[in-house]
Each structure stands twice: as C-alpha cells, then as structure tokens.
Amino acid sequence: MGFKVLVLLFGGALAMSAAEPRDLKVFFQRTCAACHGPDGSGRGSSGQKLPGRALSDARWQSKEKDSDLAKSILKGKGGMPAFQAQLSQAEVEQLVAEVIRPLAARKK
Ligand code: HEC
After folding, report:
1. 21 C-alpha vs ligand 1 centroid, how far in Å?
2. Ligand 1 centre from 31 Cα, in Å?
C-alpha cells in the first residue's frame, strides 16, 4: 500500500468525522435524561419524580419560544445547569427543534 493511499484514507476519515453531526438525541439521553427523564416527562423509568421539569408538556411548550428554551439551556435557569461549555448555540437550537419540540408532539 502506497503513501498516497494512506493519505487518502486518513483524509477521508477526517472529513467524515468533521461532517458527522453530533447525535443530539444521544446527548439528551446521556446528559439531560437524568433530570428530565428519558421521555422528557420529568419522571424516571420507574415513574419517580426527577428534579427537572416535564419538557414533554405540550401546553407549557406552546407558551415557550425556541429562543427562551435555547437561552435556558445555554445559560442555565434555577436548578438547571448551564450547558454553554458543552454545546454551541447552533447545537442548542438543533436540540430544541429536533429533540425537545418532538417530545411534546409524541406525548399529547
Ligand atoms: C441537574 C438537573 C438538570 C439537568 C442535568 C438538566 N436540566 Fe433542564 N431543567 C432542570 C430544572 C430544575 C429546570 C427548571 C428550571 C426553572 O424553571 O427554574 C430545567 C428546565 C429546563 C428547560 C426549561 C427552561 C425554561 O426556560 O423554562 C429546558 C428546555 C431544559 N431544562 C432542557 C434541558 C436540556 C436540553 C438538558 C441537557 C442538555 C437539561 N435540561 C439538563 C434541571 C436539569
């Protein structure tokens, strides 16, 4: 195998990892579900009340703007820690649109 082939393979792997979007559903399960529940209901898998609010509440969601939710996630709010060290503004907007909004749609 020549040097050129190696360079091509390595370059390809780099390009792929750069283009690969972070899986925000996985991020939610790893980072947010501990307080908000795996389904965003604010309850754990055995129905126990968790510290985070119910994110799947459709009535509550309908009163909240994307920008307010994004700000709370980035900066924190009350008992909610800030996530600006772990998530970019764009990732938070994507998280709101693709993970948090669908939680309500799925519920009621
Ligand atoms: C340590 C527990 C904890 C973790 C971890 C946590 N939250 Fe929260 N979250 C809370 C609490 C408590 C509130 C209610 C805050 C309030 O209204 O005072 C909240 C509120 C929220 C709100 C509503 C904010 C608003 O403007 O009313 C959103 C959206 C949210 N969390 C998303 C997330 C996301 C996304 C993650 C993961 C990146 C996450 N939370 C991780 C505890 C947590």
Report:
1. 23
2. 11
Q: What is the pLDDT of residues 85-102, one digit of tens each?
A: 999 999 999 999 999 999
The CATH number for 22-107, chosen from 1.10.760.10, 3.40.50.620, 3.20.20.100, 3.40.50.10950, is 1.10.760.10
**How many Å lie between the centroid of ligand 1 and the Cα of residue 16?**
32
Residue nearest to atom 36 of ligand 1 (CA): 32
pTM: 0.84
Enter the tokens of residue 50. Answer: 């968790």
